[in-house]
């Protein structure tokens, strides 16, 4: 049995959900479990294995996001994350996927 889906939603996201309509789309970052990368082979081969593993994990999550009325905006294989727009009321359904480890609001990047 997997982790409680509600525990995968960040406190910032949970707070934000209290102030939005359930059918409203909300932009989130969906974090996926890290993929196993072999410790042998060239650096390029290990990078390709990491990318391929991420694409495999992403496939089912992207299908679930689409099935609940959301869409993938962009993906980042290096951080194993997916920026998506998902109806607020459907976030728990996406969090039910065992591949999903966390869902949070995007954070702006700032130059130091």
Topology:
Blueprint: H1 11-17, E1 25-32, H2 43-67, E2 71-76, E3 81-87, H3 91-95, E4 100-104
Antiparallel strand pairs: 1-3, 1-4, 2-3
Give a structural overview.
The protein contains three helices and four strands, in the order αβαββαβ. The protein is α+β, with helices and mostly antiparallel strands and 112 residues long. The protein has a single domain, classed as 2-Layer Sandwich (Alpha-Beta Plaits). A hairpin with a 4-residue loop joins strand 2 and strand 3. The relative contact order is 0.28. The mean pLDDT is 92.
Key words describing this protein structure:
single chain; 112 residues; alpha+beta; Alpha-Beta Plaits; four-stranded antiparallel β-sheet; 3 helices; 33% helix; globular
Strand content: 15-25%
The pLDDT mean sits at 92
> What is the CATH third-level topology name?
Alpha-Beta Plaits
What is the count of helical runs? 3
Class derived from helix and strand content: alpha+beta
Alpha-carbon distance between the two ends? 42 Å
Largest beta sheet: strand ordering: 2-3-1-4
Write the H/E string, N to C.
HEHEEHE
Helix content: 25-40%
CATH class category name = Alpha Beta
Shape by Cα distribution: globular
Using the 3D structure, state the CATH architecture. Answer: 2-Layer Sandwich
- Whole-number tally of structural domains: 1
CATH homolog superfamily: Peptidase S8 propeptide/proteinase inhibitor I9
Model regions low in confidence, pLDDT < 50 over at least 5 residues: none
Main beta-sheet strand count, sense and barrel state = 4 strands, antiparallel
């Amino acid at each position: 049995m997997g982790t409680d889906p509600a525990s995968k939603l960040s406190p910032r996201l949970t707070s934000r959900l209290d102030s939005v309509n359930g059918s409203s789309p909300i932009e989130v970052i969906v974090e996926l479990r890290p993929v196993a990368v072999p410790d042998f082979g060239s650096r390029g081969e290990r990078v390709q294995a990491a990318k391929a593993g991420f694409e495999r994990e992403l496939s089912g999550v992207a299908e679930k996001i689409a099935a609940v009325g959301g869409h993938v905006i962009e993906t980042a294989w290096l951080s194993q994350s997916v920026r998506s727009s998902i109806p607020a009321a459907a976030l728990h359904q996406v969090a039910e996927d065992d591949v999903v480890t966390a869902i949070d609001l995007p954070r702006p990047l700032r130059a130091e």
